Amino acid sequence: MREFGYQRASDVAGAVALLGADPDARFLGGGTNLVDLMKTGVERPARLVDVRELPLDRVEMTAVGGLRIGATVTNGDLAAHPEVRRRYPALAQAVLAGASGQLRNMATVGGNLLQRTRCGYFTDVTKPCNKRVPGSGCPAVAGEHHNHAILGASDHCVAVHPSDMAVALTAFDAVVHFETANGPGELPLAEFYLPVADTPHRETALPPGALVTGITLPPAPTAANSRYRKVRERASYAFAIGSVAAALDIRDGVVRDVRLALGAVASRPWRAVEAERVLTGAPADAETYAAAADAELTAARPLPHNGYKVTLMRNLMVAVLTELAEEAAR
Ligand SMILES: Cc1cc2nc3c(=O)[nH]c(=O)nc-3n(C[C@H](O)[C@H](O)[C@H](O)COP(=O)(O)OP(=O)(O)OC[C@H]3O[C@@H](n4cnc5c(N)ncnc54)[C@H](O)[C@@H]3O)c2cc1C
Ligand code: SF4
């Protein structure tokens, strides 16, 4: 591991200024991803600006009835928060489905959003990788890709985003707030992660040097009947091979409102807009759920060794919608 400098920021403006003073500096949240990447040489910052003591560690109601979640709230505190569990249960479930208790107590909301892909070529500095070294190639396309993308990928990169939390946030139309040297800004999560295209090294639309300060969730009564389901290769302590965050509102047997987002299928959390379109206003039955899943997956372009994900995601969407409908009927 290379030598690096370390500074702890105590206020937001100071954190942004410290980072701006050094082009090779990085913000440090819980360090559960960044420090691992430093150990393997994927990340080589000259300086770390620790943001864990910034006053951004609260989960609060907004004036309009949504939630504001500070960037340094730990994943553990987020999942345990009573308002998160009551009003956005899929978010609490998604966070709890990730990592381990110890890691969740260290990991922050800001760091979770910005964690990097687990593609084995990305984390191995002896291999080419367009995301790590632009223009060097993507060995995953013809190589190991059983857990790579089936939606929205390009020949330049087929990696998936690893966050569970971000999938639930995508379903609930979260907005990311940030601070820069030029003032504050915000981005809907739907625009926060960039499409992969031919620039996989550009992952988010955050301006350079921006500090994520928090997330807001708009009020969403439908979210109270929501669920996150994650499929992984072993029962715990593993990243998703496919996941679904869904919320469903059914009245008189008809779908009145639905939120659906998919994880581990694309370079970013995938809002299932086609499925939502088929579901909205349709009879709440198995036929509709299957038609919605099929509509979403029409765009799937599996690689030779990850075609199983198309079937998996179809079954997962149908199963989660069926469970939510049964729960709503009780
Ligand atoms: C063994 C293991 C298993 C895991 N399993 C899962 C899993 O199943 N599901 C899952 O979703 N995740 C999983 N994770 C990932 C874990 O959730 C992330 O490592 C964690 O959320 C990152 O948060 P952090 O605060 O530690 O980020 P850090 O490692 O500190 O930072 C990550 C990145 O975010 C940047 N950053 C941090 N805070 C800010 C900020 N406020 N503004 C701007 N940039 C910032 C850093 O510069 C860095 O680039 C696992 C991790 C490990 C080690
Ligand atoms: S899939 Fe993306 S991250 Fe993985 S090797 Fe290819 S370019 Fe790199």
Automatic annotation (TrEMBL):
**What InterPro entries has UniProt attached to this entry?**
CO_DH_flav_C, CO_DH_flav_C_dom_sf, Diverse_Substr_Oxidored, FAD-bd_PCMH, FAD-bd_PCMH-like_sf, FAD-bd_PCMH_sub1, FAD-bd_PCMH_sub2, Mopterin_DH_FAD-bd
> Membrane: is it a keyword of this entry?
no
The organism of origin for this protein: Streptomyces cellostaticus
Keyword list (alphabetical) reads: Oxidoreductase
**GO molecular function annotations of the record:** FAD binding; oxidoreductase activity
Name used for this protein in its record:
Molybdopterin dehydrogenase
List, for all copies, the residue spans of the domain called FAD-binding PCMH-type.
1-222
- The source's superkingdom equals Bacteria
Key word Transmembrane helix present in the record? no
